[in-house]
């Protein structure tokens, strides 16, 4: 607890004739205690983050602005293969390390292994975020989450981060196509 100042209080004089003194800690005025009264807001963001690009950085920066802490869930290789029908360029450990190294990210974790479509949400029970941020093109997770949250008694705010004006310029799929076209054979 932050203490603004301390005040010495004199106790009643005991029968022995000695005066006993002690210190009482008095909290600072309310405007200095706002950090004690403010609950840290945890935001959770999801993604594959295969070939990290400026679009990813924008998404994570905007997600971070929604709270005090940002936890990023990096999709497992098997999840990318299931939902996107392709293998990722970078493995899950490399993507996890790359995302975790970003200064906007407080913690990066691997997503759940999926046996059903709603398994991707199980991680929410573990971290219990106050806000869940999805990117503008993340329909897979966004469409079913509100019902799942209600069924599981969780009440975070669900936010869809809007794309900037040049939607599609920073998409991993377009970046991969461009890289393939530059390949010298």
Explain briefly what this protein structure is.
This protein is an alpha/beta fold and 185 residues long.
Outline the low-pLDDT stretches: 1-11, 18-24
Name the strands of the widest sheet in spatial order: 5-4-3-6-7
- The helix/strand class is alpha/beta
How many domains? 2
CATH class of the largest domain: Alpha Beta
CATH topology of the largest domain: Rossmann fold
The major sheet is characterized as: 5 strands, parallel
Helix count, DSSP H or I runs of 4 or more residues: 7
- Share of helix, binned: 25-40%
Overall mean pLDDT stands at 77
* Ends distance: 65 Å
CATH superfamily of the largest domain: HUPs
What form results from the Cα inertia axes? Answer: globular
CATH architecture label name of the largest domain: 3-Layer(aba) Sandwich
Instruction: State which percent range the strand residues make up.
Output: 15-25%
Radius of gyration: 25 Å
Along the chain, the helix and strand elements come as EEHEHEHHEHEHEH
Number of strands: 7
């Amino acid at each position: 607890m932050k203490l603004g100042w301390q005040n010495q209080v004199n106790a009643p004089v005991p029968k022995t004739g000695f005066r006993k003194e002690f210190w009482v800690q008095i909290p600072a005025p309310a405007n200095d205690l706002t950090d004690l009264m403010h609950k840290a807001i945890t935001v959770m963001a999801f993604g594959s983050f295969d070939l990290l690009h400026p679009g990813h950085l924008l998404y994570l920066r905007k997600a971070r602005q929604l709270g005090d802490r940002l936890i990023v869930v990096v999709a497992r290789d098997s999840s990318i293969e299931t939902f996107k029908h392709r293998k990722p360029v970078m493995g899950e450990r490399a993507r996890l390390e790359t995302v975790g190294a970003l200064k906007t990210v407080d913690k990066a974790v691997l997503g759940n292994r999926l046996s059903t479509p709603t398994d991707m949400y199980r991680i929410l029970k573990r971290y219990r975020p106050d806000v869940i941020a999805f990117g503008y093109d993340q329909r897979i997770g966004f469409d079913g989450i509100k019902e799942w949250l209600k069924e599981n008694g969780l009440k975070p705010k669900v936010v869809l981060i809007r794309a900037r004006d040049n939607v599609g310029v920073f998409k991993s799929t377009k970046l991969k196509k461009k890289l393939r076209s530059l390949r010298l054979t």
